[in-house]
Amino acid sequence: MQETPLQILNRVFGYERFRGDQAEIIDRLLAGDDALVLMPTGGGKSLCYQIPALLRPGTAIVVSPLIALMQDQVDAMRQLGVAAAYLNSTLDPEAAQGVEEALRAGTLDLLYVAPERLLTERFLGLLGEARIALFAIDEAHCVSQWGHDFRPEYIQLGLLHTRWPEVPRIALTATADAPTRAEIVSRLGLERAHQFVSSFDRPNIRYRVVEKANPRQQLLDFLRREHPQDAGIVYCLSRKRVEDTAAFLAAEGFTALPYHAGLAAEQRRAHQARFLREEGVVMVATIAFGMGIDKPDVRFVAHLDLPKSLESYYQETGRAGRDGLPADAWMTYGIGDLVTLRRIIEDSEADERFKRIERQKLDGMLGYCETIACRRQVLLEYFGEHRVEPCGNCDTCLEPVDTWDGTEAARKALSCIYRTGQRFGSAYLTDVLLGKDHERIRRFGHDRVSTHGIGQELGAAQWRSVYRQLVAAGLVEVDHQGHGALRLTERSRPLLRGEARIELRRDPEPRRAQRARQGT
Ligand code: ADP
Ligand code: ZN
Predict the structure, then answer these.
(1) What is the DSSP letter of 306?
(2) Around Cβ 491, how many Cβ atoms within 10 Å?
(3) Helicase ATP-binding domain location, by residue (predicted)?
(4) For the packed helices 352-370 and 375-382, what is the interaxial angle rounded to 10 degrees?
């Protein structure tokens, strides 16, 4: 008699019970239906196709873009006694031939294959001779042209359905915003698939955003105070910043290793291995690091630079606390990040529609940083999940943000942009408001504009905060061509005309905020 999925879970995988939607997803596939699974990283997506692979006759074909991970997955499956193999460019021809023969002979339960390999006529022909249990399309968001993991080959995966309409398919991803989901459905022809959307909440992760002042020092304080011995990841935008930060932390006594695409493959592998094996290693990395990293006890993910979207932020912070124990997502952010990311978007070769989407994503990220509401609410809302209660485990919940009537200040800030010709960034504008009269200001004659010195009731940090919030609220935009110059938008008019008011968040003074946190 055939085993049940639960029996397989117990016997082969050694787990007691299914998590979340796993059991139902497996039942769907066993019934021959398609499924689209949106589950956060670490949620347990793999079992959703691994168990049906063992129960359905034939070989399950798993399409995955992550060549580096195939071998790990296959090794893990083999240790459990499952007949698994992979096919990608790292195999020598002989080994590849062996795998192909096993496929033809029907002795494999699972075959992992890179999309470019799958799509060759040769391999498709081979599949024609084999018995296929199911198709699993992992990292299905790679089909989205507007996502940063776009893989052109993924678009052609629709042909699997055309050629093998009777074989059930399961598409899996941890990226769940509505447009991506819609794109997966339409490109892969999954209109009839059952959609399983898990909650993306990671309740054990505490989200915090601090104003960027001296980021390395702020990071050091954070690590010393809260994670002196812990493993964690520090994300930076550039390779240089990765190198500098890793060296800085190492000099301060941390086991800190750099990781970025500019390092030799061997060194990257070695650093990754140490991060996984040793305790308390801090990986300082660009976003090149992390895809598929399954280390349960990552206690913090720190961002020294703003990620370019909330999807990226969620993915990156999601590497913390997979064991369910408390973990921190900590980030420093300043308006300079925004300027840099805007420039990266504008300087890219992408077409206008792509750029518009990237800008919107960045705006979402900014909204998260500047929110006075619960950060978790903002984050989950972005993924289409509405949460009524504030979470109690983010900085805005733990230290509710004061607001103040910023109408007057905002008007001064806006008119200062206007009076100086909409050609300057927030640091310069702040100097004008504060009435500084350095060489540059005099050269432009801005010591004589009407807004010179009208902002002395606030400090420089507060003015920077006002400008950030005006950008986040869409009243001001960053002009990438003007090297981060701020410009007024249509939406600033009512405020300038005195027809609207604005509430602003009162950013804690850096020092006060630290003390408040130590007290908790
Ligand atoms: P994802 O692919 O969604 O990131 P994985 O499939 O790698 O997640 O699973 C994450 C971890 O959770 C793995 O270590 C896996 O063995 C474990 N896991 C998955 N399902 C269960 C379960 N039902 N019970 C216990 N552990 C599970
Ligand atoms: Zn909260």
Answers:
(1) -
(2) 14
(3) 26-194
(4) 160
